[in-house]
Hints:
The chain has 495 residues and is α/β, with parallel strands linked by helices. The protein is 35% helix and 16% strand.
Amino acid sequence: MKKIMILTIGLFLALSCSEKDSVEITNQLQESQKILSIDEINNYIENQLKQYGDVDWTNAPANILYSAVIHGGEVLTVGFGEQGQSFVQGKRSAQLNEVRNNIHDIVLKSEGMAKSNMIVSDDDIFNITDIRITKLETIKALQTTDGIRYLEPNGYSFYLKQEIQQKSAGCNQEDESIHNEDFRLISPNARLPWNFDIHKVPQAWNYSTGEGITIGLIDTGISASQNLLDAGFNDGDSRGRSVERFGTYIDSPWWWSNNIDGPNDKCGHGTQMASVIASPRNDDFMSVGVAYNANLIAYRATSDVVLNDYHERKGVSNALKALANRNDVKIISMSIGYPWSIGNVKDAVRYAYRKGKMIIAAGGTSTTFTNWYGVIFPASMSETIAVTGLKDNGYNRCNICHDGKKIDFTIVMQRAGDADRTIPVLGLNTGSQTYAGGSSIATATTAGIAALVWSRNPDMSRDQVLNKLKKAGEFYPNKNNAFGYGNINALKAVK
């Protein structure tokens, strides 16, 4: 009887311990599955940026990556293949297909959902698959899978919310009165922006006006209400050229929607960039562009200048692919970006670069990062040409412009005595004008100058044209740690 009692007590204690251990294990599991707050994720991002200048999502703690995916609409972008295998030329190899299929099999097994619900998007050229993730175990499994280049929560968009709300992310739809000292009148009746004289653009026009060169613009599109960038693109002294408008941005609350919103600018930024690149040398008392006889292809790939949304990142990636595949496109201008690198955009930049395109990107314009952060993505890539803006009182960056060792060129675009007096450009509507500045306008101006050089030297390669721009830089043959080769002399570049 005593023996039976001891066994009973022992069994009771064992069960009690087992139950206690089970509760602890359950609590630990629930804690590990906990979705972290936006503030917690942002703290990780901030630390990564300050320590490394970029964000490593692939090797992030699993719960950080998982939480960012959940907050970002459950979309995970997976770049697969070996490092450097950003894209395929021709048919994808059996090995790459096997890697992609293995990724899909892992997710299907872990998530237990239909394949049609799992795959958000598969690309035919880039080694990328966008998949829907709902479980932490799936993230952990993928982090230990071979053949994965990167894992990114491509829909996470909460890091720059305050900055975007404060500054409208570069958007401006207001008409403004242009100060009389910020332009001068040239034939047939066009306004020449004040900084064109600083960079010797009018003198360069004696040799080249951009004829025969096609520039691709990836931005917020072009306004349907601005005639000089539509039916009036050939106006005044601008003749025999074309402007095309496309859309790759999906303006939809559903992450996996495929409803393209169209090419029309709803922000104003893309219209402004198109203006400084290639607005006609008109007879309407409006601002002229640098390459006023160049062709223009504009893609509405974003809603604003900050690539903080899955559809914007996908839109830019698709626009780069489309422009890369066009033989007539020589230059791609991108006055858009983000604080850290974005895998599917990086893959697309490398694809366009491999196709021989000159990709000119904004070094960064912000109020939050100018004191501690350098050049933003994609201008930070070696495949792009990074540009920033200066005031008109020497080498002093504009109030909200970034600088750093990755900057290649500078453009003067802001009055030192009045930060609001930047560069006059076409407004959203026919007959309207406004001001635009920052590294955005500097980038677009540089794209126009590059078109002048290439038009003058149509048989040159991208690298040869770039070398001419470097030689026309104020600091050449040296490179300044903050401002690259400095201000470009357009006349020197085309001669």
